[in-house]
Amino acid sequence: MSLALFWIFAILTLLFAVGVVVFRSPVSSAMSLVMSFVGLAALFVTLDAFFIAVVQVLVYAGAVMVLFLFIIMLLDLRTEERRPVKLAAWAGGGIVLAGFLVAIARVISSLPGATNTKPEILPGLNDVAQVGVALFRNFNLPFQIIGVLLLVATIGVVVLSRRELK
Amino acid sequence: MELLERAPVELKNAFLRVLGSLGVPEGMLAILSAVLIIGTVIGVFLGLFALMSVMERKILARVQNRYGPNRAGPFGLFQPVADGIKMLTKEDLVPRAADKVVHFLAPVVMMVPALLVLAILPYGRDMVPVELESGILFFFAVGAGTEVAIFMAGWASNNKYSVLGAMRAIAQMISYEIPLVISAVTAAMIAGSLSPSVIVAAQGGFAAGFLPHWFVTTPWGFTAALLFYIGALAESNRSPFDLPEGESELVAGHLTEYSGFKYATFFMAEYIGMFAICGMFVTLFLGGWQAPLPFLTVVPSWIWFFGKVCFVAFTMVWVRATLPRLRVDHLLAFAWKFLLPMSFAAFLSAACWHYAGRGPAAWFLSLVVVGIPYLVLGLSFTSRFSVSRRTYLFSE
Looking at per-residue confidence, does B299 or A102 come out higher? Predict the structure, then answer.
């Protein structure tokens, strides 16, 4: 059951990921990206990582995508024109892709135990609590630093986009 | 009463037992059990939607001193049936310039999140369709799908009013989602869990024998509940935040090019989404299925839940009948300059309440922590407008 679900969602994720590149209309691309994110979230669910799955949907399929869509609407992007396919471009892309796949296959095969799943990190705790413990106990300082960084970015945006008051 | 409390679950179990004795295999029964739960939840909410669509018009009519629908059936109660038939028999118009696929998909995508979020609400004692550890997050994550659906509707229609409406809707929903989520986080923080059933359980019991431990009875909880309520109004595009459909400027916003049953699907999804967010409001701040007084605990918990949901939905209609629509810049300024800082204040206040021991002293401390920002923000927000008493020229 779980394996079948994995294949269904993995194929869906990849299909829509290809769709992001293939579709000529920016809106269709953005929609494919949403579907790809949702498929990825479903893959997290099959790994029992419900929290990560929900956050994946919340942050990427929700917030980030809405931002994309908003920009598409603001900029009024038109459908890209179809260009004639160049053989050299296809060949170059194919070589890069093949090299990339070979590199990934080598890394995966060199990892010991990459095929078996790891046991629970903190047995007995639910996944939300596990993320909380990891963030606030083990990696508290980096977490706080990232918080300050985001605050600085927010203030920077406000300062940059502020209209000068006469 | 004990029997009534467990009635929905027992009915389902009895039905499954009968089927089991008839020789239906075990695996089939498990699937059937899930289907029964899903069917019941969707059925109940569709019923609520039908009731709401007529009650809303009746209440609005009552407020505006007129009759409202009273022709179809007793007290106009068959109005939803008549509306449904009308919607089904209308022509389904698709503009020639529309993106056909996306135009068709938009109402479907709108319906999906509205139904999915119903899965995690605790409807009664031990009555949660899906016991999810990160249920609150799931609610908001799936709810964000509504924004995508509105965008699809607005964009695919290829109509300037549709795009403008969708743009307004998305700007509004992004802005109001932040105070909405932060005020929901306060309840999750105090309960120590993101699971809705744990949050409801944390609000059980009575102080001094009669005061319920609902979060709305604390200063931070009251503030957060108000913020959540305002955010919920905006998220479900209800008046006074129904700018995306402001008919005086935008015809019907993203719904302009929809007719017949596609329009009805949008309408239905919006109402079910509204009920879902009312359910979340009740779960977070009004004690979920908990009874308001000790001697009322004999009434089944699910009656309390749906009673509270209907009450909150009623107040939303009341607000619609009372308040005029906001202007779009006021709307966004209100979210970013007032609701957002206030939600941070409520958050801080909840933390103070927790660390001061949750007693009467903590109550006053949290009142101070949330009261000062309220006064400062409120004064700075209203000082730019001169508020004078409205004089009526022709009435009174």
Answer: A102
- pLDDT, averaged across chain A: 82
State which H helix or E strand residue B207 sits in: strand B206-207
Q: Which residues of A touch B138 (CB under 8 A)?
A: 54
Nearest partner of B56 among B319, B371, B301, judged by Cα: B319
Q: In a 3-state reduction of DSSP, which class is residue B206?
A: strand
Which run of H or E residues covers position A89?
Answer: helix A87-110
Which pairing describes strands B211-212 and B206-207: parallel, antiparallel, or unpaired?
A: antiparallel
| Buried-exposed string B36-65: b where 16+ CB fall within 10 A, e elsewhere | bbeeebeebbeebbbebbbbbbbbbbeeee
CA A49 – CA A57 distance, rounded (Å): 13
Question: How is residue B274 written in tokens?
Answer: 């509204």
Tell me the torsion sign for CA atoms A77, A154, B327, B279.
positive
pLDDT digits (tens, 9 = 90+) for A88-134: 888 998 999 999 999 988 888 877 766 666 666 666 677 788 788 88
Residue ranges of the domains in chain A?
1-79, 123-166
Burial of A68 (0-12, 13-18, 19+ CB in 10 A): middle
Alpha carbon distance A127, B8 (integer Å): 31
Does residue A54 sit at the B interface (CB-CB below 8 Å)? yes
Give B210-266 pLDDT, tens digit per residue: 778 888 888 888 889 999 999 988 888 887 887 777 677 777 778 888 888 888 888
User: What letter would DSSP give residue B390?
Assistant: -
User: What is the domain class of A1-79 according to CATH?
Assistant: mainly alpha
For B:59-78, CB contacts with A below 8 A are none
Of the residues B148, B160, B173, B197, the best mutation for testing chain A's interface (the one with the most A CB atoms within 10 Å of its CB) is B148
**Looking at residue A68, what is its pLDDT?**
82
Using DSSP's 3-state secondary structure scheme, residue A108 falls into: helix
Partners of A34 on chain B (C-beta within 8 Å) are 148
Does the distance separating the beta carbons of A127 and B163 come in below 8 Å?
A: no
Nearest chain A residue (CA) to B147: A66
CB contact under 8 A, A62 and B141: yes
3-state helix, strand, coil in chain B (%, to 5): 70, 0, 25
User: Which whole number is the average pLDDT over B355-365?
Assistant: 82
Among the partner-chain residues B137, B151, B166, the one whose CB lies closest to the CB of A58 is: B137
What distance in Å separates the CA atoms of residue B173 and residue B253, rounded to the nearest whole number?
A: 14
pLDDT tens-digit profile of A47-81?
777 888 888 888 887 778 878 877 877 776 666 66
* Tally of CB atoms within 10 A around B333: 14
Global pTM exceeds 0.90: no
